Amino acid sequence: MKRKAWMAVAAVPAIALLAWAFMPAATEVELAAVTQGRFERAVQEDGKTRLRERYLVSTPLTGRITRLRLKQGDPVQLNDTVALLLPLNPTLLDERTRAELRARTGAVEASVARARANMERAQAALEQSRNELRRSEALTRQGFVSSNQNETGQLNVRLREKELESARQEEDAARHELQQSRIALQQFSGKTGAPQRAYEIKAPVAGKVVKLLLQSEGMVAGGTALMELGDPSQLEVVVDILTEDAAQITPGTPVRLSNWGGTDVLEGRVRLIEPGAFTKVSALGVEEQRVNAIVDLSSPAPLWRSLGDGFKVDVRVLVQVVENAVMVPVSALFPLGARSGLFVLEQGRARMREIEVAARNGAQAWVRTGLSPGTQVIVYPDSKLKDGDAVRAR
Known about the structure:
Elongation Factor Tu (Ef-tu), domain 3; 3 domains; 22 strands; six-stranded antiparallel beta barrel; four-stranded antiparallel beta sheet; CATH 2.40.50.100; alpha+beta; 4 helices
C-alpha cells in the first residue's frame, strides 16, 4: 500500500506536466483601446483652385494686332488699353488687275464728265423755263394769256428744278466712284496718305493678367482670344465627386483643404453642387458618374496668398461629425449576420460581442451600444479565433 501511495504521489506531477505540455497555447493578438471623441466621416478627393470670375479678352474685329506689352501677373485697371488693333493692309495686285483698275478709272472719269454735262444741260433748261415763266406772267398781267397757261409754266419750272437736282446727284455719285478708283491705285503704289488709326482694346475689369494666349504681332480674325484677366485674391476650389457621395452633401458643409503646399490646413464650405453630372473613366478603366462641387475658402486670405489659379489641393468634405462618439478601429470589426462583431479581451480570453455600428470612415467606426471607452479589443483577429480562446498581447 505504501509503495502504491508513493507511486501515485510521483505520478501526479507527471500527469500535470503532460497536461501542461498538451494544453493549447494562448494566441498572440494585437490590441487596441476603445476611444471616445470626435467622429468624422468625410469624402476625400483631389481638387484644384480656379478664379471665381474669369474674363477673356478677344479681338472684336479682323485686323493686325500689335505686339502685346503686358506679361503674366501684370496688374491692369478698368478701361486700360491692353492691345492695339490696326486695319488690314490692302492685298497685292498683279499687272492685269492694275491695268483693269486704270481702265475702270478712265471709265469713271468719262462718267463724271457725262454727269457734269447732264447737269449743265439741266441747268440751261431750268434757266429757259424760268425765262418763259417770266414772259408768261407779264402777258397774263396784260390780259393776253390765260392763267392756265401761266400754271403750266410754273409746273415746267418745278420739273426742270428736279431734273437739275437729279443731275447733281448723279455727278456727285460719279465723283465719289472716281475717288474710290484712284484710292485703289494709290494703295497699290504704297501711297496710303495719313497713318492708319489703331483700335484700342480695353480691359473689361480691374485685376491681373492670368494667362497670355497671344503675344506676337500678326493677323488675327475677329473673336481671337488674346488674354485672360482675373483677380487672384478671389479663388474657389472645384472638385469632382461621385454622385452617390454628392447626394449626402449640402451647401454649407464644412471642408478641409490640405497638401496644397503650405503647412496649414485651410477651411472652406461647399457653396454649390452643380446640377449636371458627367461620365469620367477612372484609372482602373471604370466609368463613373461624377459631379462638380464648388468650395469657397473661409480661412483668412494671408494664409493662402501663395495659391494661384489651377493649383492642386486635397479636399476633405465632412459629411458627418459627431461629438463624444464611442469609436473602435474598423480593423477590429467582422461581419456577424446582419450586424457587426468583434473580440474583446476579458481576463486573458477573447470574448465575442455583437455591436451596432452607426457609421464608419477609413480608420474608425462609431459604435452606438455594446462598448465602453477603454475596453481592449482585438484588431485584425485570426479567422480561427473563437469565443473563449486564450489570448495574449503580441
